[in-house]
Amino acid sequence: MTSPSGRKRLLALVAVVGGVALLATTAATLPRTTPTPPASAPIAETALSRAISTAQARLRATPDDPATWARLGSAYVEQARVTADPSYYGKAQGALEKSLALRPENGQALIGLGALANARHDFTAARDWGSRAAVVLPDTAEAQGVLADAHTQLGDADAATAAVQRMLDLEPGVPSFTRASYDLELHGRTDEARQALDRALQDATGPGDVAFCRYYLGELAFGSGDLDLADEHYDLGLLADPRDVPLAQGKAKTAAARGRTDDALAAYRDITRRVPLPQYLQEYAVLLRDAGRADEADRQWDLVARQEELLAAAGSVDHLTSSQTAAERGDAAAALAHAEAEWARRPNTLVADTLAWALHLNGRDAEALGFADRAAALGKRDAVFAFHRGTVLAALGRDADAVAALEDSLRINPRSPVAAPASTALAGLRGRR
Q1: Where does the signal peptide begin and end (predicted)?
Q2: End-to-end alpha carbon distance in the chain
């Protein structure tokens, strides 16, 4: 767990820099390597396509230019994120390896390979590439961004906070403040996380960065049950970038939470056609199932499996989503197998919660509680985590502790997807006390 002094220093720098009126040039143009849903924006796509075309033209004239190969590879990584097309991963790897072959220990190529590994969910490799990049370019925020993302996913909270702190020291801008926000959120400091995102928004200049900040501000609001504030952030983000897919997904979630099922289904239908990420397909399938449209839900589950196969063929394996999908479909054995496989790859907070739930579904609640406790260890305030922990405690006969956890789930977010089962479980527990 991150030391209190480390967290205080991170917070202090966010607060101090947030009060500075004039700063050096921000890092808003640095590539974002945090694994996030893609932002399918026409402006971003045009800029990316132009960057790719420019690099390709330059390489036709000067094919042995390692810097241009590195730029091309990094642009391909971003294009994969924007389009959810995993075929760009192979193109990115080829370009970045070419750059490294032309100039060994080429810092920008090492950063690009780290970003590619993070995108493929190969976080151990991302950490190794980031470490090499940080040796070559010790004063470059991008290398620390790769490390921050990798350490976060690998569950090394101290190393992640240190990398974020180094980013803030080097270049306090959108990439560093958004990572600081996530680090603070993981430690349960949601007010400070919101402040860090507000600070990032001040530095956001392009529509993509504005949309990125607004989406995560909306997510913080959604996570606390404030649907009006969440919608406000999503709407403001869409004003900056009307085609941003994560913002559209945010709007779909709030529509579902408000009981506007038809609107939510229409939104998810459009989102999954534009960007068929397993996460979006899974959410769409659950909504269809809950609306009584089982056949349509099954078709979406089939698409989840096909998309996961495509991603795996491109080198991106995500047992976490596979475990959650299996759990939703009632396949407890598969949910557990996938969760255990993912825990072996990245023992972080989110995977701990997923593994706890999979163990519970298989009747192994004593083991499940240990992982539920690990999910809560950093202090993250998450309604689903608390619901899962309360359910496990109830199964173990620890009714008072279960009531406390379920009450906490509803207190964190009274509008979460688990609010109804949490309320039902609470009523049952109170009835037998």
Answers
A1: 1-23
A2: 36
Residue found by looking up tokens 């009747």 in the block: 363
Burial annotation 356-393 (CB, 10 A radius, 16+ → b, else e): bbbbbbbebbeebbebbebbbebebbbbbbbbbbbbbb
Q: How far is CA 182 from the centre of its chain?
A: 9
Helical spans, DSSP H, in 1-86: 4-18, 42-61, 66-83
Binning the chain into helix, strand and coil, the percentages to the nearest 5 are: 75, 0, 25
CB 127 within 8 A of CB 151: yes
Nearest to 261, CA basis, from 292, 291, 286, 234: 291
Q: Tokens 């020291």 — which residue?
A: 169
Rounded Cα distance between 410 and 241, Å, is 33
Sign of the torsion formed by the C-alpha atoms of 187, 223, 146 and 336: positive
Residue range 77-135, pLDDT digits in tens: 999 988 888 999 999 999 999 999 999 989 999 999 999 999 999 999 999 999 999 99
- Those residues whose C-beta lies under 8 Å from the C-beta of residue 63, and which sit 6 or more positions away, are none
Task: Report residue 388 CA to chain centroid gap.
Answer: 20
